[in-house]
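S2.1 Query sequence (Ribokinase)
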Amino acid sequence: MTVFNLGSINADLVYRLPHLPAPGETLASSEFSRGLGGKGANMSVAAARAAARCVHLGAVGADGGWAVERLLEYGVDTRHIRTVDGPTGHAIIMVDDAGENAIVLHPGANHELTAEHLEPLAEARDGDVFVFQNETSLQREGAEMASARGMRVAYAAAPFDADAVRAVLPLLDLLVLNAVEAAQLAEATGMQPQALPVRDVVVTRGPDGCDWHDTDAGTTRHFDALKVRPVDTTGAGDTFTGYLLAGLDRGMPMAQAIGLATKAAALMVTRHGTADVIPDLREVQDLSL
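Output structure tokens follow.
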């Protein structure tokens, strides 16, 4: 089976500063790094490292060849990533010595997707997984096409946008969101997660684990997080989602797939970085706490 991911691809440009700049202030950074990021890219890498076949649907600018090569290196099928006019999406991340940060995000190529980017879904089979987030265009169109083909439609509703969620809610089989996003969705729709018209709703709660709502059965099951010492939570939620989908794609029951994803996320928060440091399946399976 296959996971098709309509997802963002970003360059994370990280600058270490003594403090965040005030208006009009110019600062020299003490460190600089460029890494692969974007919620879509993170999820594709996580799914691929969890031993799923993952096909990424997305776009970069002419400056994004390195990002495509890195995705390929990590096991992602990159044949359908297209090059468009304009720059690759990127985030300028300023981090000070106290760990505070300020981020400027430019969507770039991620918002330049056209109907051609969805053509690979014609290859999908009944039961394949389609996942998307809120960092690209064509969300509704992709979900409609995937649903019509009998795919399992999964949605990570971040960055949160109530209108975007409403537009795709009737098409979803699986919704993954964090506790803050769940509260925002409840305020916007008047429905708690367990009342949503989606078969499976997973609400992640950071160090408090996650809740799985099986709305057909009317049941809720809580999963504890593993006890680790976190150093960087960036990308942990994306890692969780990618591993969850990979487990489901391989036929795992939901509870088993959540257990695998929980371990992957726990290992992820012990590392600095995003897509480049997502653990592989052997590391996750070997994790013992």
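Helices lie at 39-49, 65-73, 139-148, 162-168, 179-189, 236-249, 254-268, 281-286. The chain is about 30% helix and 25% strand.
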